[in-house]
Amino acid sequence: MRTALMTKTRTALMRTLSTRSALGAAGLAMMVLGGVLLWGQATHWDVLIWLAGAVVLHDGLIAPLVLGVGLLLGGLKNRGLPRGALLTVGCLVLIALPLLLRPLPTANSSVLPLNYVRGLLICLAVVAALAGMIGAVRWGRGKVNNRKFNGG
Amino acid sequence: MKPRLPAVRPPTFRGRLHDARTATSIGRWLGAAIAVCFGTGLVSHYLQHPPGWLADDLPSRPLWGYRLTQGLHVATGIAAIPLLLAKLWTVYPRLFAWPPVRSVRHALERLSVAVLVAGAVFELFTGLLNTVQWYPWPFSFVPVHFAVAWLLAGALLMHIAVKYPEIKAHWSRDSPGTLTLPAADGPDRRSLLTGVAAAVGAVTLTTVGQSLTPLKAFDLLAPRHPDHGPQALPVNRTAVAAGVTQVDLSAYQLTVVGPTPYTLTLDELAALTQHESVLPIACVEGWSKSAHWTGVRMTDLLHRAGAPPDARVRVVSLERYGAYRVMEMGREYAHDPLTLLALRLNGRVLTPDHGYPARIIAPNRPGVLQTKWVSRLEVL
User: Fold this and answer.
1) Exposure winner among A122, B277, B288, B336, fewest CB in 10 A?
2) Which residue blocks in A40-101 are alpha helix, DSSP H?
3) What is the ipTM of this complex?
4) Do A99 and A132 belong together in one domain?
5) pLDDT at position B3, please?
6) The domain spanning residue B273 has which CATH number?
């Protein structure tokens, strides 16, 4: 009985290990293929610089910025709502940056046809309004609950 | 006495939610998004650059196939931006692990994570800039985006293999690893995940209307809008950019080369039996829109040239410059009854930017292969 259980456990462990190894090996093979494809490009050194630049951009600029904002928010009692709103606003600004910063002219008038400053401002206003409404509802509900609690 | 320098110490993180449960919760959505991007990217790549053995077997159905896969490619790429940022925020303290390298194994693990982070940020960044046709880098976008995609997908598989026990231990709310974390963090974690979901929803809703046309009213931050363009259909390459405006179109003739070659003027083309197809233009940059096209069936043109039923076609454009001046069409596309040499768009004669006098429209194909300003068909 006990040996049977041990064999079963060992088989399960072996299966997990072999699945993991297969996954890892497949990943390594795909990375090698990617590396070979990349090395085939005459500009591979430029690509490597941009790849490293991607890490520097995130780890050196975006992450510290976000952490800084987080530090300011950390003391708030109900930080969930402002955090969610700021996260949404930040991502909307991020995807709007290429639209706003791309040098003009574009290839034709159907590329970037909209007024993106206006679009972004509408988006930010909607997020602010929604967050304000949710906050007000929560605040109101909290007051009612408090009164109930105190009264009962 | 020796001057003593202040010891360099890595920063410490006292904030909550830099834990494995949060990383697993966000990571699996990010992983799914990257998998969709990779899969749809491969579909797009092989539809645009089919190896010879595949060219004749590429299916022309479903007719909305490429519209769906490429729309998904760009939409999941955009949705992955909040997911990636949230995931990297969660694991950011690990960047400052001390000592930086503990063993060879640890060094390799960190190296693979570096490739993963670099690849993910790089792919989302270059992909997003490609949708606005902005190329500020000194390499060509398509082959590099393709190569780094393999690097990223490989690094992701490797990461899943390395982290498998931790992922398993934090997969659900009741998993053993999750239960060892402070229970007080639960509501805050769910609130963070709701915030990430809100950000994903916001970036998706404000961009997806460029391909999911029923949502076009919310298209505020996409590089394209379904209603903006000549004949209310966006274009990529204009007649001016292709150098077609310098060609004298009054002498236009379509030349068909095959077992029984022939030529047709535009009037003669318009006098042939006209058919209507409702087919989308779906661009590699993610936008797409369906339209009504009227013209001559490709099968009719091939039949008239005495082409065998398994013939492929080479299509040549009047355009002076461009990598897609000559396009080849596999058997499935060439013999699909919906494939047209179109003369009209939504009931009106094509404008120059949509390929006047005649253009190809075929189901389930990338926009760059819907050749405009067609002057010559060669039966292969």
Assistant:
1) A122
2) 44-56, 63-73, 80-101
3) 0.94
4) yes
5) 63
6) 3.90.420.10
